[in-house]
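sry for the spam today, last one i promise. struct tokens for design, 232 residues
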């Protein structure tokens, strides 16, 4: 039985320092993806040049800066594989990530998507004052992150694309919508994603983006109220 095609989507914005290592972690997978799409979201550094070093194994798509949600969506539109997987340009996969998740989905057809655990690690060169504040962040934890998921493209599209209105939290919003639709998921116990902690991590340092989380919560509550009213 042939291995189903998996397309890996890597959104990039000014991560030239880490991109090569991220792509390398995809290329070293024990189950090889059919395609790797790097979507450069208007980088002003040398991210595109780094990506081009991996052609033709990697397809590079460049667009003006629209945010992570829009970059992921561009990758999805251009993906030809049966399955979708995502990786941020500053993170890493463990080498058997795709193999473990694909095997689970094939053996459990009633599960719509599968995630795994994530281990966070401190990037070299991070100032000591940051390190002292990040110790609790390094614990192994359930990976409710795009980079920890594998899903069929057709299943993903039942929920719809990532929000392009949000500067942060587009996966949280998508996952909330997926649960509202009744999609099933499993979180495997293995560490499948290694998340790099550095001085530009949006989710940790850009606190003013908390308004996006408030918007996500508000929209989720509105969807539940609408569903309850329809079921009366």
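last one done:
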């Amino acid at each position: 039985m042939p291995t189903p095609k998996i397309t890996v989507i890597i959104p990039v914005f000014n991560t030239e320092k880490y991109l090569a290592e991220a792509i390398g972690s995809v290329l070293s997978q024990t189950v090889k993806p059919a395609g790797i799409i790097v979507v450069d979201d208007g980088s002003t550094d040398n991210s595109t040049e780094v990506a081009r070093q991996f052609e033709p194994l990697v397809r590079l798509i460049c667009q003006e800066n629209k945010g992570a949600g829009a970059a992921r969506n561009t990758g999805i539109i251009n993906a030809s594989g049966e399955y979708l997987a995502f990786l941020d340009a500053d993170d890493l996969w463990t080498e058997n990530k795709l193999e473990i998740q694909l095997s689970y989905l094939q053996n459990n057809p009633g599960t719509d998507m599968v995630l795994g655990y994530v281990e966070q690690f401190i990037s070299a060169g991070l100032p000591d004052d940051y390190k002292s504040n990040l110790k609790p962040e390094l614990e192994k934890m359930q990976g409710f992150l795009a980079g920890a998921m594998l899903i069929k493209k057709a299943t993903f599209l039942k929920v719809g694309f990532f929000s392009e209105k949000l500067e942060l939290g587009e996966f949280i919003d998508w996952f909330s919508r997926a649960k509202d639709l009744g999609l099933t998921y499993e979180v495997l116990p293995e560490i499948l994603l290694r998340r790099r902690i550095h001085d530009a991590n949006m989710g940790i340092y850009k606190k003013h983006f908390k308004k996006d989380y408030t918007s996500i919560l508000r929209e989720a509550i509105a969807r539940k109220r609408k569903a309850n009213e329809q079921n009366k």
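The domain at 6-230 is CATH 3.90.550.10 (Spore Coat Polysaccharide Biosynthesis Protein SpsA; Chain A). ok im logging off now
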